[in-house]
Amino acid sequence: MTQVVTPSTKVMPTLLTRLRQSDDTPLAALALLSFIVHVAIGNNYGYFRDELYYLQDGLHPAFGYVDQAPLIGWLAALTNLLFHDNLFAIHVISAAFGAAIVFVAGRIARELGGGRFAQMLAALGALVTLVFMATGSLFSMDVIDELCWSVAILVLVRLFKRNEPRLWLLFGLVAGIGLLNKYTMLFFGFGVVVGTLLTPQRVMFRTRWPWLGGLIAFALLLPDLLWNATHSWATVAFWGHYGGLSGGGPIGFLANQLFSVNPFNLPLIIAGLIFFFRNPAGKPYRALGWTFVVLYVILTLINAKSYFLTPIYPLLFAGGALQFEQIAQRARRRWTMPAYVTVLAASGILFAPLTMPILPPPVFAQSYAALTTLGNGGAGQQNAGIFPQYLGDRFGWHAMTREVAAVYAALPAGERQQACVFTMNYGEASALRFFSGPDHQPLPPVISGHNNFYFWGPGSCTGQVLIAVGIDPTDPAGFTSVASRYYGQVTPAGAITCNYCMGSENGTLLYVLTQPKQPLAQLWPLLKHFD
Question: What is residue 504's predicted lDDT score, i.e. its pLDDT?
Answer without folding.
Answer: 86
